[in-house]
Structure formats: C-alpha cells, structure tokens
Amino acid sequence: MDSTAVDSLGLRLDDLDRAWAQELGAWLAQHWPAHRAAIRAAAPTERDGALRAWQSELAEARYAAIGWPEEFGGRAATTTQQLLFHLALGEHRAMPATGRIGLNLCGPTLISHGTPEQQELFLRPMLHGEHLWCQGFSEPDAGSDLASLRTRGVVDGEELVITGQKIWTSGADRADWMFALVRTDPAAAKRDGISFVLVPMDAAGVDVRPIRQISGDSGFSEVFLDEVRVPLANVVGGLDNGWSVTRTTLANERAVLFLGQQVALTSTMRKIVAQAKEDLPGRPRAAADPALRDRIAGAWIETELVRINGMRNLAKVLDGQNPGPEGAMSKLFGQHVEQHVHELALDLGGGAAVLERGAEDAPYDGKWALGWLRTRASTIGGGTSEIQRNILAERVLGMPRDPWADA
C-alpha cells in the first residue's frame, strides 16, 4: 500500500496491520481488474448486475462488510483496518460494494437489534448484493427534525399497514428493500411511538418516483406508501422502540464518514494542482497567477484541516470512546470545503470547465462541472449545515436548545 496515503492520515501500523493491508492489496490486484472491465463495458440496463457481481465477489472474500462480526460474514476489522481498506480501494481505484447503504447502516442495526430469524433472513442476501437497501427516514416535513415524521403504521392482526411519504431516498429506484421509520403510536411523545420497519419495495402500494437533480442525476427518489402491508415480524427492536434502534443506525452512518470525504478531497486537490501546471488552450497556466496560487494554497489548508479534525475523532474511536458531537464539525466544515474546492477547479479550467461530459475540450471529461453541481447539495444532505451548527452550539458550547426541538 502507498505509504504516502497512510502517512497522510497519521496512522502508525503494527506488523499485523501491515500484513493485513498487503493481503488486501494482493487480493484487489487479482480480482478487481476483471470486474472493472465488466462494469465499464456493461450497458446501462446491465450495469446494476455487474455491480452486484462485484459485491458478491467481495462478500465471498469477507471484504463486503469487513466491520461485521465474523459469524455474520465480516472480518471483525478494527477501525484502523477499515481505514486501510478504504485507502486500498482508492489506491487500486476499486469500487466499494454497491449495497453499502444496507451494509453500513441496516446490517449493523440488525446485528445489534434484530432477532435471529431476521438476521438469518436478511443479512446474507444483503452481504452478497442479492438485496439492495434504501433508507426511508426523511419526509417532506421531517428531514433534519427526524422525530416529527408522520408516516403512519397501524397494526392489523399480524401485519402493519403503512401509509405516508418518504423523500430524498437514495437509491430507492434500484433497491429491493427499505428500512423505514414509521409512527405506530401517534399519541406518544415526539420521540416515542416510532418503529423501525423493513419494507419490501415490490409490495403492493409502494410507488417510487425518481427526482431529477440539477446535475442530471436521479440518485434520490420520493417513495409513496399507500396502505402497504408488512408482517409484524419485519419490525426491528419491537413496536414503538424505533428511536432507540435508529441511534445505532445513525452512529454507524457517521463512524468513518470523514475518511471517504478526505480521500475524495485529497484526490481532487491533486488533480487541481496538476491542472494548474498545465497550459490550457487560449490562456496561460493557472500556476502563473499569484491570486490563483493563493486560492490553491488556501484550499489545501482547508483540506488538511478536514483531515486533522477527522483524525482527532478517529483517535477517540481507536481509544474506545464515542467520537461525540464534535463529529458534526467534519460534516459542517468538510462539505463547505467540498464546495470551495470545486469552485476553484471550475475557475482554474476557465470557460471550458463548465462543459458537460462528452463535450469537446471539457477538462477531465466534464468532471468539474458535474462535481460543482453535485456539491450544491453537500450542505443539505445528511443533515443541513444549520442543524450541524445547532449540534455544536448546544452540545459542545453548552448553549440553550432551540425551543422547536422539544415542541
């Protein structure tokens, strides 16, 4: 593994970790190239199958969900080993498992709160890419304030009848299952009376409507639930106990969030520096402009600050502690940095940088224009910047809670 990448995160590896990383690197070098070729050659209608096949290959080698316990098909990998895994993927330019929403969020939740029957039924297909999952949490009036959700679940015999709407549901248009929060006791307090439910996406009454974004992608969808019947056996952790169950899900969502962000930012900064040294058609190289050089230096410093804050939180995890509310800083500051970096990339590329993919003379095949458009949502998705500031103000600085939070 590239020692520069390891050094950039400040990791100190023992002999076992180094051997683990070498084994992983050799495996990726042997198995990834054929799958990369298959994924690139696949027609749009066949790409999903090619991605699932790669996940199945990862699962067979116990690399699909390395943090899972060994008895469930994982490797019980340490936090350091999980970091090394992501670094190795970046070094080999290999894709992670396509079903990582299920693997990273729902899987650990089922391992912690699921019944043996639920674990037996859902974990293996999730691991091998036979079932892809989406997260049904956000609603039109319950995004950052998740506890105000209104989707209802009414018990009818041995079934739960669900009616409501979810929005900004990533990957819903290709998912086989959704783990959703449903209000099952409307008379209970705001954070009580909520259940964590597993919903098949092919059930009668489920309507998925992709949302076209400014970037042209449709990675999010609206999901309408019209009297969808789900067995009570699909409730995880018991009726009305969903808020407690969800804390496990959200903890896993933030566990190593900064790492993917750091790897992506570092890669983008390297490309920006390389582009600044190039002579572009009709304009001198950007590195000759003192103002642009100053902006590049500033962006590099911001990227390093994201790394340092992430390493501070990682040190807590490695020491057996909860990273705490300071983790909100990685989300808040890091995603503003994403926007700054892509704005810089557009400016360095000149007028041609706004060309879309496939356009002649588009730098990096339109990567900067697409990245800039996608990062407009960075400060909204996964908890808005305003919510992250509230977390830091209340839980780090000790300021009073907003009145609406307990309404």
UniProtKB/TrEMBL annotation:
Q: Which family does it belong to?
A: Belongs to the acyl-CoA dehydrogenase family.
* Keywords per UniProt: FAD, Flavoprotein, Oxidoreductase
Name of this protein: Acyl-CoA dehydrogenase
Tell me which residues make up the Acyl-CoA dehydrogenase/oxidase N-terminal domain.
26-130
Using the record's annotation, list all stretches that form the Acyl-CoA dehydrogenase/oxidase C-terminal domain: 241-397
| GO CC annotations, alphabetized | plasma membrane
Which cofactor is essential here?
FAD
Acyl-CoA oxidase/dehydrogenase middle domain: which residues? 134-227
Gene3D superfamilies for this protein: Acyl-CoA dehydrogenase/oxidase, N-terminal domain (1.10.540.10), Butyryl-CoA Dehydrogenase, subunit A, domain 2 (2.40.110.10), Butyryl-CoA Dehydrogenase, subunit A, domain 3 (1.20.140.10)
InterPro entries named in the record: Acyl-CoA_Oxase/DH_mid-dom, Acyl-CoA_Oxase/DH_mid-dom_sf, AcylCo_DH-like_C, AcylCo_DH/oxidase_C, AcylCoA_DH/ox_N, AcylCoA_DH/ox_N_sf, AcylCoA_DH/oxidase_NM_dom_sf, Mycobact_Acyl-CoA_DH
Molecular-function GO terms, alphabetical: flavin adenine dinucleotide binding; oxidoreductase activity, acting on the CH-CH group of donors
